[in-house]
Specification:
The protein is an alpha/beta fold. The chain folds into two domains: about 90 residues, no CATH class; about 230 residues, Rossmann fold (3-Layer(aba) Sandwich). Helix content is about 35%, strand content about 20%. Helix 5 packs parallel to helix 12 and helix 12 crosses helix 13. It starts with a helix and ends in a 10-residue tail after the last strand.
Length: about 400
Amino acid sequence: MNRRGTVTIAAILQCPISGSDLSFADPAYLTELRSRIAQGALKHVSGAPVRMQLENALLSSGGRFVYPVVDDILILLPSLAIARMEGTQATSYQHLASDTDSVMRFYDEVGWQSKKDVVFQDAELFEDLRPVSKDYIHKCHLRINEHLLPGGKYLLDAASGPVQYREYLTYSETYERRICVDVSLTALRAAKEKLGGKGIYMQCDITQLPLKTGSVDGFVSLHTIYHVPEKKQMSAFRELERVLRPGRTGAVVYTWGDHCFAMEVTLHPVQASKQLIKRVLPAAAVRRLKNGSGPQPSAAVPTGLSPTQEEPKLYFHPHDYDWFHREIASAAGWDVRTWRSVSVPFLKAYMHSKLLGRGLLSALFWIENAAPHLCGKFGCYPLLVYTKPGSGDASGS
């Protein structure tokens, strides 16, 4: 990260604790910080001793807080800020919510671990990777581009993960830089391998974005906000609204989860038939049926954990459409479209090559395009599109 680049990036940042401006440390100050860390004289605001090898550092106005930069990743979680002034109490600043911390652990230890074919565990667990669904999934991924205004300086990718699908790269093609924010360092390191100098990488909480108001020209947030603690999801939406420039657009992929009546109804017969087979047929016959029905997912997710370690849980709390309409869309600018109307369990239950699966999915995609609002409201995965009121310079300069 060159000097000119650091000045440009700092201009859009703010301290997530105080809201003050941030600036990069000069070489002399950085040398002092490294010396004090080596002496064990500095602590994070959480109270933990600082053990990071600082590549660089960001300072809040007045120098009260210092944020580490490691591997070109800006560490902007409040609990990891380094307290520089006496009397800064660890109890004054909250740690990550326990549910958010669990999500971070899940993705560091499980979700963003890749296999030999560079498929992340997250995709293995939560996506339909079968050939029959490939074209449909591909076209759903590309729907995001229809709702992003082309051109601009910064595209914010809120909870970017490792930017795991090639379609995700298209979202920032017309932007100068892509700001990848995530709580997972593993994710950000993987994103950096893909994007290189195109990206700006920040470890932070999306309910407390370290970005100035109106500093980005577009945003995407994919399959993330329903993993944010229930009572903080509104804050995540409001933060995305805040950092967007007037007149620009952003898109959130959300899910109604168990509130999606269509998926609940269509999947009940499948679940019921499975239970019936288990009760009527001997266990050996059930195993033969399963073994003869094609490849089955692994019974256990390899996590690298010892038997005595507790596997991190992935927190999940989707709200329903009424909540979104009441709490979020009450602010001007939100619109509900469809990203994908059916769930992965639905795809795997009903869409098969021998049963004209590709043709059915092509017809479904056409229906979703013809009735995007209806499919967004009653389907499984809505695309929540935001256009910030007002007008702004599209160049982002």
